[in-house]
Amino acid sequence: MTFDFLRRKPDAPDAPQAPRSMGLPDPGVLTEEPPAEDYELKLTYRARSSKGVRFRPGEGSVAALPRMLEDFNRSPIELIEPLDPQFADANPTVMRTIEASQWLNAHHHRTPVTRYGLMVLETLDAVDPAYESIAICLLEGALDSGGYPDFSGIVGAVASYWDEVTGDQMVRGIVGWGGRGVRGDTERNATRYLSGILVAIVSSRGAAEVVELERPLPPDSGSGLVCPHCHFAQVGRSAFFCPKCGLRLLRG
Fold this sequence. Notes:
Helices cover 18% and strands 18% of the residues. By secondary structure, it is an alpha+beta fold. A hairpin with a 6-residue loop joins strand 5 and strand 6 (169-179). The longest helix has 17 residues, at 186-202.
């Protein structure tokens, strides 16, 4: 005896076939809130610059810049002269491959601390290596196995250029810090170091007065004069001295 009602009914000839599963989730799930993994990296860099100190005519010296950091350095102090014209486009930003290659060619021989400090200060536009001389060192923090400062590191620098009108040396102190994380007391310690650096600058021989500094040239100014000594190509047309080397310019 057979039970016909238990048999599977044949499919209708025009009935659509169900899509064959390929192991993919329901498309409806993808459009609402798909399962995902989050990745995040926060990099924070900061820098702070002091007021400038004007040195009396004839008493300014680039060679004296490292001595202003001798009471604070935790690493060897390195003096960086302004970049040669061939490295005019150097930039530490990796995405700009040509500019980054110039930057590495200009600084590959420097210590890890110096490269880190220059990267931080140039990225923040706190220094202009085109015409500023910079003495730089580590002020606080530990170094990793490669010799680079960790997140608690603070770098200090003294930067100078020559005033375009008077030819006097203009010097200022700078501190920079940051990276993957920042300790709560890093900014307070950096400010304390900056105050000490400014005192050291003011106490140096030849220091005349504390002044507000302005950049001698507007950013990306390409219409300046060319210094015959150092070939700096952005000397202001109203300048009497080159801000990079301090040479007095002949005015017609």
